[in-house]
Amino acid sequence: MLVALAGGVGAARFLRGLVRVHPPTDILVIGNTGDDLRVHGLAVSPDLDSVAYTLAGLSDEERGWGLAGETWNVLGALERLGEPTWFSLGDRDIATHLLRTRLLAEGATLSQATGEVCRRLGVPVRLVPMSDQPVQTHVEVDGPDGLEDLGFQEYWVARGARDPVRRVTFSGIERARAAPGVLEAIRSAEGIVLCPSNPVVSIAPILAVPGIRSAIQNATCRTVAVTPIVGGAPVRGMADKLLPAWGVEVSARGVASLYSGLADAFVLDQVDQAQAADVAALGLEAIVAQTVMRTVEDAAALAKVALDAVHERGGPGR
Hints:
Layout (H helix, E strand, L loop, with lengths): L1 E5 L2 H13 L5 E5 L5 E3 L2 E3 L1 H10 L17 H8 L10 H15 L4 H12 L4 E4 L6 E8 L2 E6 H7 L6 E7 L10 H6 L3 E4 L4 H10 L3 H7 L4 E4 L2 E2 L2 E2 L4 H4 L9 H8 L5 E5 L6 H6 L3 E5 L6 H16 L7
Parallel strand pairs: 1-2, 1-9, 2-5, 9-10, 10-13, 13-14
Antiparallel strand pairs: 3-4, 6-7, 6-8, 11-12
Helix pairs in contact: 1-2, 1-13, 4-5
């Protein structure tokens, strides 16, 4: 079994390539749930849904998130009623959240609800949340009225990530437990991939779930991380706003420093080839490749690089 740790859109695009070079039924994806929230009473799991929609072939490629062919009638009606609409839910997307919310209300765990949603959508891999217990990513910012503690989606979507970040925390992480089967899958994995996701708010919450980081560190297989930073900027998202809050340089080597002691190899872009020596100095095998995924073929080529690194033996691993 190949295990992948995944955030949202960047990870989803990488995984779309991975299923082309590795049997989908032999892939377990552990999804970040620190972004989860309630919107108009509905249970929304943005990162899980981004992965599910993309791998089911349903995602909106032009917009980069949500479902293709989406309509916005419910959102318009909510706006007319004076309800907040800063978090856009499309009509077809709402159906997913209605199903998830009903299943949770009937006593299903998030893992069980995710499995049912994926089954109905036709997701070819096994997608599981990092934990069945709620974990909320919070961002402390310098707001217009002083220090403010914001939920991640409020910071990112409602406020457009414009506020300077002081701190990022994961509320509820001390009570979280790895979802059923996650630790066992890591321990017996043939390889582990840290997808090109935001290292602070997509990968770090997963690693913060008690037991997951240590399981990866003690795994007998190789772990390979793929950079989300190219040429000193994130390919997508706001990692450049968050890494400095952790005292980390916005660069491939900065991200690599977060994975030192955890991963065996780190894939960085050709643009950042000059940083390969710095990555190697961190104890990681530096692998230079094209990491920008403009097409499905690009994603498959990058996934093949990561897969080859996973199966390589004799490199400078842990």
